[in-house]
Design goal:
2 copies of one chain form a homodimer. Chain A is an alpha+beta fold. Chain A is 41% helix and 16% strand. Chain A has 2 domains: 68-343 and 354-401, BirA Bifunctional Protein, domain 2 (2-Layer Sandwich), CATH 3.30.930.10; 412-505, Rossmann fold (3-Layer(aba) Sandwich), CATH 3.40.50.800.
Chain lengths: 506, 506
Amino acid sequence: MPLLGLLPRRAWAALLSQLLRPPCASCTGAVRCQSQVAEAVLTSQLKAHQEKPNFIIKIPKGTRDLSPQHMVVREKILDLVISCFKRHGAKGMDTPAFELKETLTEKYGEDSGLMYDLKDQGGELLSLRYDLTVPFARYLAMNKVKKMKRYHVGKVWRRESPSIVQGRYREFCQCDFDIAGQFDPMIPDAECLKIICEILSGLQLGDFLIKVNDRRIVDGMFAACGVPESKFRAICSSIDKLDKMAWKDVRHEMVAKKGLAPEVADRIGDYVQCHGGVSLVEQMFQDPRLSQNKQALEGLEDLKLLFEYLTLFGIAEKISFDLSLARGLDYYTGVIYEAVLLQTPTQAGEEPLNVGSVAAGGRYDGLVGMFDPKGHKVPCVGLSIGVERIFYIVEQRMKTKGEKVRTTETQVFVATPQKNFLQERLKLITELWDAGIKAEMLYKNNPKLLTQLHYCESTGIPLVVIIGEQELKEGIIKIRSVASREEVAIKRENLVAEIQKRLSES
Amino acid sequence: MPLLGLLPRRAWAALLSQLLRPPCASCTGAVRCQSQVAEAVLTSQLKAHQEKPNFIIKIPKGTRDLSPQHMVVREKILDLVISCFKRHGAKGMDTPAFELKETLTEKYGEDSGLMYDLKDQGGELLSLRYDLTVPFARYLAMNKVKKMKRYHVGKVWRRESPSIVQGRYREFCQCDFDIAGQFDPMIPDAECLKIICEILSGLQLGDFLIKVNDRRIVDGMFAACGVPESKFRAICSSIDKLDKMAWKDVRHEMVAKKGLAPEVADRIGDYVQCHGGVSLVEQMFQDPRLSQNKQALEGLEDLKLLFEYLTLFGIAEKISFDLSLARGLDYYTGVIYEAVLLQTPTQAGEEPLNVGSVAAGGRYDGLVGMFDPKGHKVPCVGLSIGVERIFYIVEQRMKTKGEKVRTTETQVFVATPQKNFLQERLKLITELWDAGIKAEMLYKNNPKLLTQLHYCESTGIPLVVIIGEQELKEGIIKIRSVASREEVAIKRENLVAEIQKRLSES
């Protein structure tokens, strides 16, 4: 039976069930007759062909389609985010979805394995972008741009274990704002925190807090605690997990997996419990171990200045200096920050939201230099809004409240109560479209009036214009309000003006 | 010298130049001394390390970054396109950048080889999307959607030979509008043509023409001319090249490469010269060969009805029934169309534009059924706006005219003529931001006033608010118009209101 090897899986199952049915009368029962097997094979092959059995329609693991409902929510949120970026003077830009693989390597630390590579089809080795920061740095270095304030909204791709429940996907949208250039200390850094505050307040997601630290303080703390310098980045990655894991598990990872001495881990443990306002910065200046470390002192000086500016921006009370904040990515060199939503008591009927980081960023003064042949540096600081998490939160809230969104913006529907009025409807809708009015009609020669009115109610179209024999004869049009069901007759030639008047009033 | 094998290329060149310099005094001249070679190797290695010689910074072949200038032009054009789609009642949606490879195979005919595949990293076999139509059909089938009017703006990827001169890239943006569902004939089809007209008129690209044909007429013509059915799609692909190639070259391809009999090719040649309005449709009904073909007759009937609706939409004079239009993609089943800009006489100083197709589409009634396990069909018709070509045309025109675009939207700049006024500037800009005003300042503690004013002029910021010692003492702020250089003093507490008044007036 050489054919069997070629059978697709579902056909195999069909064949098996054929073979397992009672033997035919002419057989001994112990062995199936040749004709029965041949028939089974044939039937399966035929079925296989007719039903395309091997073809299961689906989309790639960890990805999803965005329905019109999703898109409406996204558009609103992105509009708010982008208009904040523009308010702060940022320019838009975009980079290709993929980069040369070597552009992306050695930028992301432990996470590099999660990059999507493209197949080698006889050209360059390419990978899908993993964030928008590295392509931005590559852009600056390649075009020798020394100064730029830009935002970038785009998709990035990571081969993470997808968690649909938490709204984590392998393809997701990032919204980044960055300031590149040599400036006086902490002014751009403070503006980044101001932007995060404006966006999170604007989105009305509830109370939030921005944790702030500095990579130089993190490294200084590691040095002060006795972490060998070769382990700095690895230990930093462990600390970064403190928002998802308990200290004892992070400690275990550092000691058992990363070979840190237990007493060193415990010293770190003392520090990472510290968080507070500007007073904690002052306190750390007095810390016997930290204050011996040059790097840490520089970081503390900058944080002090940062808090001064944050006070002028009126957002100091939203900021917490937090020694447990480490940020996972390798490229940070100075101030780092992460905004978290504060859990509010769950209201009746509301499901508790999985609250976490909704924005983050920091200073990365060395990244552009990594791309420059001579290592010329361009200092940068920036932020990324966790829009996917925000989309998820807003969608969950709407679901809980039973809120519905209109997925179209249609203002007027063109209807008729009579048969053979397609031509008049087409003429009428042309007038509306040409006047810039959003209009729809049914693609039927003779639709029922009830069907037409029902369409307006179900899709939220506010106005209907109705044309029939009577109206045509008298040179009038009826305008109907879907909500109130009121109808008025107007002169045909006043149609556009009357519609525009009603739309501007509503 | 085992080290040499490890040297990168630029280091090799440096080594070579060292070895080629004049021999040292202690050498015979014929053979270089050991110490000299060793020195050369060492120097090269050091250089190699310092200058990262192997790293050439670039982006993938056929792709490009979109600068802020590009983005501004794009945003304006896309806004116009999307608002037209919304005017016709379309909903937005999005699909992942990649699909299962098998979703995309056997949909694009001869072009399938141009797909970007992802590397097999131990999961599914994936490819980057090649257009937005196949993912839309997959979406409809997967979600059992029988009716939908949607638009989709997104990137697609094709491994074509990039032609930067013609604005053709391997990553490009598509803007699609499609109507899925079983409706009365030609109503949605006519609306698609209306949309193309609205968009091309709105963009003011100059005069244009939409060529229309029907796949059933193309196939009927092939049958009538004696093309074997097995060659229909291949010959269709050749005909599709008529807008770029002369008839004699297309004929050669059909005969020499695709094995068509010369007399059959010549019969096709007679037809593909025909183009005209609705009168040509009437004429083809009388054609002795075409009128024998059932498929062709169906196509002609539909075109006749289409022209009736196009007349009601007021766009019939923009449409040309063109028998040379074939469209390359396999999935079309009915009406097909392609919009071309008509070459206008080149004005003085203007470079002649490479005019070509700027929008296209057609009816594809079988594509959704290819994804349905039971083959259930959902008829579809749609269009794609060639926005990349449009971006290119608009950018070229602006370049010719020397037009410049602002890449930021900043309305107000916060300046000071004095030292040590950072705090006051920060307080002032906070007020503006919090009132929703787009504002910038320089990130310097003590910028010069001239530098600040120059920044406004070079970036097009219209208003400056100025604060100095005098103003602070008197509780006033100066507002300066950058264009007129006029300055007025206003009360500090009226700042936001005064700025808003001025912005609403301009």
